[in-house]
């Protein structure tokens, strides 16, 4: 352990969609696992020891752990785009080689800069939601502001639902949520959606929003689905912002609509500074992430946890408990 580092007992780790892709398919897109790699990047824990130059932390302190570890020196870090760091060490990523090992472990040695104190009243299970919440907060930043706007979110898994909580906090006037299953839509309502639409059983429910060239000022597409993206093009207003959050396969874009409606299509990738905001929102109760957590299993049942996480009919966020401290 270095002088600026902490030894941490990991408490909870959430299973992310990217973890599932690695586990089930060996990767996603062009990213492939080429060597053994631990998974996991949504973690909380308890400080066990501190390096000689660490201040502001004590043994036994409960923390959320940011998986984002940019170099701080490359041209993107120097211009405030740490999420695009050329030398990023993001937990559980097969993008670089050698791969960056993940955080699903009983203990981790981390940089003190990754540690964010958790309020006494917040469970460590909820604290492990800071990472997916950060993804949603960065997506909202990419939209350029949603205050007073009409917003559509398609794909209401953990990130989409937490994003809805962020939209509510950011001042969106009306939030409509769409998904093809009832469980995520139930969660979306609990997180603050004004209206939910099952896009499988209510195929025409979005039609009313096509009027007058579209009604939504901003759309967040969090499913990675081509039909969802195309449906968004029909209901977004001229000069609206469409933020692509979910990762899917390559798709053909409806360029005529993008050009004629002057749609602003934006990507969003990971986060950095938003992690501190996410922890603050959770600590203060400004965003309650509990509805997103559907199961917590001990690490001895990790294989079962991954199977459960893959079953979208009964699961949103499945977490693994790694240590005795996970009861906190």
Topology summary:
Blueprint: E1 5-14, H1 17-25, E2 27-28, E3 31-32, E4 42-50, E5 62-65, H2 75-78, E6 107-111, E7 115-117, H3 124-127, H4 130-143, E8 150-154, H5 158-170, E9 174-179, H6 182-191, E10 195-198, E11 216-221, H7 226-235, E12 236-244, H8 255-260, E13 264-267, H9 274-284, E14 293-298, H10 302-310, E15 317-321
Parallel strand pairs: 8-9, 8-11, 9-10, 11-12, 12-13, 14-15
Antiparallel strand pairs: 1-4, 1-6, 1-15, 2-3, 4-5, 5-7
Helix pairs in contact: 4-5, 4-9, 5-6
What is the helix fraction of residues, given as a range?
A: 25-40%
User: What is the residue-averaged pLDDT?
Assistant: 95
Identify the CATH architecture of the largest domain. Alpha-Beta Complex
CATH fold descriptor of the largest domain = Quinone Oxidoreductase, Chain A, domain 1
SSE-based structural type: alpha/beta
Report the uncertain regions.
none
Give a written overview of the molecule.
The protein is α/β, with parallel strands linked by helices and 328 residues long. The chain has 2 domains: 5-129 and 289-327, Medium-chain alcohol dehydrogenases, catalytic domain (Quinone Oxidoreductase, Chain A, domain 1, Alpha-Beta Complex); 136-267, Rossmann fold (3-Layer(aba) Sandwich), CATH 3.40.50. The protein is 27% helix and 24% strand. It is built from 10 helices and 15 strands. Strands 1, 4, 5, 6, 7, 14 and 15 form a 7-stranded mixed β-sheet that branches. Strands 10-9-8-11-12-13 form a 6-stranded parallel β-sheet, with helices on both faces. Helix 4 (130-143) packs across helix 5, helix 4 (130-143) crosses helix 9 (274-284) and helix 5 (158-170) runs parallel beside helix 6 (182-191). The longest helix has 14 residues, at 130-143. It is globular. It starts with a strand and ends in a 7-residue tail after the last strand. The mean pLDDT is 95.
């Amino acid at each position: 352990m270095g002088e600026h580092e902490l030894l941490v007992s990991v408490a909870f780790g959430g299973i992310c969609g990217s973890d599932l892709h690695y586990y089930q398919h060996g990767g996603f897109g062009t990213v492939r696992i080429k060597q053994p790699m631990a998974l996991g990047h949504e973690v909380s824990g308890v400080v066990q020891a501190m390096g000689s130059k660490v201040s502001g932390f004590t043994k036994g302190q409960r923390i959320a752990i940011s998986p984002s570890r940019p170099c701080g020196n490359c041209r993107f870090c120097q211009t405030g785009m740490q999420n695009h760091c050329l030398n990023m060490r993001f937990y559980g990523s097969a993008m670089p080689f050698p791969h960056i090992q993940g955080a699903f472990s009983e203990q981790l040695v981390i940089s003190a800069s990754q540690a964010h104190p958790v309020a006494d009243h917040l469970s460590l299970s909820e604290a492990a939601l800071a990472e997916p919440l950060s993804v949603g907060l960065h997506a909202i930043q990419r939209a350029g502001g949603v205050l007073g706007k009409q917003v559509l979110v398609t794909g209401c898994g953990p990130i989409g639902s937490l994003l809805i909580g962020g939209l509510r906090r950011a001042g969106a006037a009306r939030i409509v949520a769409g998904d093809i299953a009832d469980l995520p839509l139930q969660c979306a309502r609990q997180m603050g959606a004004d209206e939910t639409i099952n896009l499988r059983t209510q195929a025409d429910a979005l039609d009313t929003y096509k009027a007058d060239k579209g009604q939504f000022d901003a759309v967040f597409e969090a499913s990675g689905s081509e039909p969802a993206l195309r449906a968004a093009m029909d209901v977004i207003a001229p000069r609206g912002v469409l933020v692509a959050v979910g990762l899917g396969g390559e798709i053909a874009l409806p360029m005529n609509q993008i050009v004629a409606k002057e749609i602003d299509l934006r990507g969003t990738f990971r986060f950095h500074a938003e992690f501190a905001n996410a922890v603050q929102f959770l600590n203060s109760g400004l965003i309650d992430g509990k509805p997103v957590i559907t199961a917590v299993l001990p690490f001895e049942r990790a294989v079962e946890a991954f199977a459960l996480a893959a079953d979208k009919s009964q699961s949103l966020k499945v977490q693994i408990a790694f240590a005795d401290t996970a009861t906190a």
